[in-house]
């Protein structure tokens, strides 16, 4: 059975091996360039007052081809699970059902359960190996540019670092196999797999991940220097203050409150804020109000717990899907 | 009796459609069984249940004394060539033989290699490039080389041209002579089965019409003709009747030889027998 799986999966394996070698070569070259830049920009030798030096290094490394490799690495780790699900998972059983070859395979001296378990085991292991190697290499290459876990907990990086990509790979693979078994046709199963994977990959950071662990809560004073914009609208002259809050983590919600703790909505005093007076006076006026920010966030310390929880959920869903596939395969004809 | 295939009340429904209805059979070992019936009669359903490709809705079935496809050992004892002889199009013949060797503990590699050589096939040829007859031969080789106790073939020659058909049946006969295994093969054409089988099952409209040893069926089924209005002998079952102005001709099933001076008795060919049963349900529904 191992031989058959290998024989059927051989060309896909070579495609992946060649792809991994190519990606590895690009990453190595880019890592060399980033490392040279780290030295040349003075960031490596810097001992005090380094912020501007680091900032300069990041700007240089983030532009040009090394920046392209950096973003490409993130994109690859988000896209590849979908491709694995569609090209490895969906055809695994669907191609046999489509060609009728399951009628040949299932009458050899191997039970269907073992037949499917062997296929799942080998291609599943290949999925883990591929996603693991790639995530390891890309996380390693990006470590200088990510500026540590402060950024890595933010949604755009979180899903493309460390263990979570492996779990997404397994999840997409299981979705692919299930879709193939249920739909019995390769191409529609591939489409469904891509839709489900990308749906989950988008839903997770948007709606789910922030609830996986209790959010931290803080009410720092509103820093006028961090205001990005002011919005005044409506007959009540409602005032919305846009801007950053310095929290070490992933900012989930951000509101402005008054010293008593009530939600601040204005009204904007027309004497200081409005079309006739400049934003400068409005800012000064806001500074006198003793406003605070009311923020919730996932702190940096949650980075690894969240990595494991999210991975755990995805792997558990994959396991349920696989269990379903094994049961359902016994009923297939 | 240790039947090769024993079924009782075997029934398969797909939603509201009944594909196989209350099928009861006991096939003795060592027979070459022909399963005949028109397309859509339920032949494939019966064979797929027997090899464990699909479960029945009701009733019981035992193949070689076990539930179909119960475990690896049971799978090893039953060889199956599905309709249209599926093979892996992108794998070569040699790959298929390797596949058989890896997946079957009783695999006979010499037999497989010799058969492929005897057929004049190039082992490096991809299965997808083979003709229908060659592909059927490859599928048969895979099923034979696993050395099954029972070989099941679903319409193995339906899609083959007459020459390939004859070659395939010759291969099959050689296997039967060689290994003495039991064989069940289905066809919608009696001519395919006439020369090979010694046990016959006629399946029409999801029901087994008749099943038994060919020799016995040939003595219990006859064509009789006599004067119009002559009394039908006792105990016969009329399968087919035709009349001219003066004469009546009947195809009948009779438990005992007919010895009645009013009727002349003629033997049937297997084709006559099968056609009589195939025509019967239609007759009954129009009555």
Helix coverage percent of residues of chain B? 25-40%
Q: Helical segment tally of chain A?
A: 11
Shape of chain B: elongated
Widest sheet of chain B: strand order?
Answer: 5-6-7-3-8-9
Work out the oligomeric state of the chains in this entry: heterodimer
Order of helices and strands of chain A: HHHHHHHHHEEEEHEH
Cα-atom Rg of chain B, whole angstroms?
A: 21 Å
Largest interface: A-B, 21 and 35 residues
- Measured between the Cα atoms of the first and last residue of chain A, the distance is 20 Å
Structural class of chain A: mainly alpha
Query: What summary fits the major beta sheet of chain B?
Result: 6 strands, mixed
Walk across the major sheet of chain A and give the strand order: 1-5-4
Class per helix and strand makeup of chain B = alpha/beta
Per DSSP E runs of 2 or more residues, the count of β-strands of chain B stands at 13
Cα(first) to Cα(last) distance of chain B is 39 Å
What low-confidence regions of chain A span 5 or more consecutive residues with pLDDT below 50?
none
Approximate strand percentage of chain B: 25-35%
Q: Name the shape of chain A in a single word.
A: elongated
User: What is the typical, i.e. mean, pLDDT of chain B?
Assistant: 91
Mean pLDDT of chain A: 92
The ordered string of helix (H) and strand (E) elements of chain B is EEEHEHEHHHEHEHEEHEEEEH
Main features:
heterodimer, A: 333 residues, mainly alpha, three-stranded antiparallel sheet, two-stranded antiparallel ribbon, elongated, B: 287 residues, alpha/beta, six-stranded mixed sheet, four-stranded antiparallel sheet
Protein described:
The complex is a heterodimer of chains A (333) and B (287). With 333 residues, chain A is mainly alpha-helical. Chain A is built from 11 helices and 5 strands, in the order αααααααααββββαβα. The longest helix of chain A has 39 residues, at 2-40. A 6-stranded mixed β-sheet of chain B has the order 5-6-7-3-8-9, sandwiched between helices. In chain B, strands 11-12-10-13 form a 4-stranded antiparallel β-sheet. In chain B, β8 (199-204) and β9 (207-213) form a beta hairpin. Chain B is elongated. The chains are: A mainly alpha (333), B alpha/beta (287). The A-B interface holds A 1-4, 7-8, 99-101, 103-104, 106-112, 114, 331, 333 and B 48, 51-55, 69, 71-73, 75-76, 78-80, 82, 84, 86-89, 91, 95, 98-100, 102-106, 139, 142-143, 146.
């Amino acid at each position: 059975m191992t031989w058959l799986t290998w024989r059927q999966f051989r060309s896909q394996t070579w495609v992946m091996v060649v792809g991994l070698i190519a990606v590895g070569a690009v990453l190595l070259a880019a890592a060399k360039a980033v490392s040279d830049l780290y030295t040349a920009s003075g960031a490596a030798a810097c001992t005090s007052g380094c912020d501007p030096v680091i900032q300069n290094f990041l700007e240089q490394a983030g532009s040009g081809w090394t920046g392209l490799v950096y973003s490409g690495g993130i994109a690859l780790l988000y896209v590849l699970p979908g491709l694995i699900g569609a090209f490895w998972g969906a055809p695994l059983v669907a191609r046999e059902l489509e060609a009728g070859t399951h009628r040949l395979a299932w009458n050899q001296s191997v039970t269907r359960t073992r037949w499917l378990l062997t296929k799942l085991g080998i291609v599943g292991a290949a999925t883990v190996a591929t996603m693991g190697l790639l995530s390891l290499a890309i996380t390693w290459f990006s470590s200088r540019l990510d500026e540590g876990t402060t950024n890595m907990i933010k949604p755009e990086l979180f899903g493309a670092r460390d263990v979570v990509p492996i779990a997404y790979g397994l999840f997409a693979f299981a979705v692919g196999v299930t879709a193939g078994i249920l739909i019995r046709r390769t191409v529609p199963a591939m489409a469904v797999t891509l839709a489900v994977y990308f749906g989950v990959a988008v839903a997770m950071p948007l709606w789910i991940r922030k609830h996986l662990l209790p959010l931290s809560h803080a009410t720092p004073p509103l820093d006028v220097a961090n205001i990005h914009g002011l919005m005044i609208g409506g007959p009540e002259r409602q005032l919305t203050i846009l801007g950053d809050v310095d929290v070490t983590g992933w900012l989930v919600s951000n509101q402005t409150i008054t010293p008593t703790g009530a939600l601040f909505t204005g009204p904007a005093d027309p004497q200081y804020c409005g079309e006739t007076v400049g934003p400068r006076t409005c800012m000064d006026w806001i500074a006198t109000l003793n406003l605070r920010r009311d923020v919730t966030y996932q702190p940096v310390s949650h980075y690894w717990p969240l990595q494991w929880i999210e991975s755990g959920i995805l792997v558990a869903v994959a396991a349920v899907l696989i269990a379903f596939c094994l049961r359902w395969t016994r009923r297939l004809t | 009796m240790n039947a090769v295939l024993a079924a009782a009340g075997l029934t398969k429904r797909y939603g509201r459609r009944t594909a196989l209805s209350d099928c009861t059979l006991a096939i003795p070992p060592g027979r070459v069984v022909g399963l005949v019936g028109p397309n859509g009669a339920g032949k494939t359903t019966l064979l797929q249940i027997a090899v464990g490709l699909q479960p029945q809705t009701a009733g019981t079935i035992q193949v070689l004394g076990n539930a179909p496809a119960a475990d690896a050992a049971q799978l090893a004892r039953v060889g199956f060539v599905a309709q249209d002889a599926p093979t892996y199009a992108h794998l070569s013949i040699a790959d298929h033989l390797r596949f058989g060797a890896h997946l079957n503990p009783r695999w006979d590699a010499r037999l497989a290699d010799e058969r492929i050589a005897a057929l004049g096939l190039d082992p490096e040829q991809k299965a997808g490039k083979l003709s229908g007859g060659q592909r059927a031969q490859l599928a048969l080789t895979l099923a034979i080389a696993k050395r099954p106790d029972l070989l099941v073939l679903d319409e193995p020659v339906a899609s083959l041209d007459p020459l390939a058909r004859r070659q395939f049946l010759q291969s099959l006969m050689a296997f039967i002579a060689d290994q003495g295994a039991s064989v069940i093969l289905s066809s919608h054409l009696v001519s395919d089965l006439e020369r090979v089988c010694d046990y016959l099952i006629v399946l029409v409209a999801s029901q087994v019409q008749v099943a038994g040893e060919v020799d016995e069926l040939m003595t219990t089924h006859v064509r009789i003709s006599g004067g119009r209005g002559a009394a039908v002998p006792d105990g016969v079952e009329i399968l087919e009747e035709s009349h001219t102005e003066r004469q009546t001709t009947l195809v009948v099933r009779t438990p005992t030889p007919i010895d009645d001076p009013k009727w002349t008795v003629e033997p049937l060919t297997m084709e006559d027998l099968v056609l009589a049963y195939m025509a019967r349900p239609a007759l009954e529904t129009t009555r």
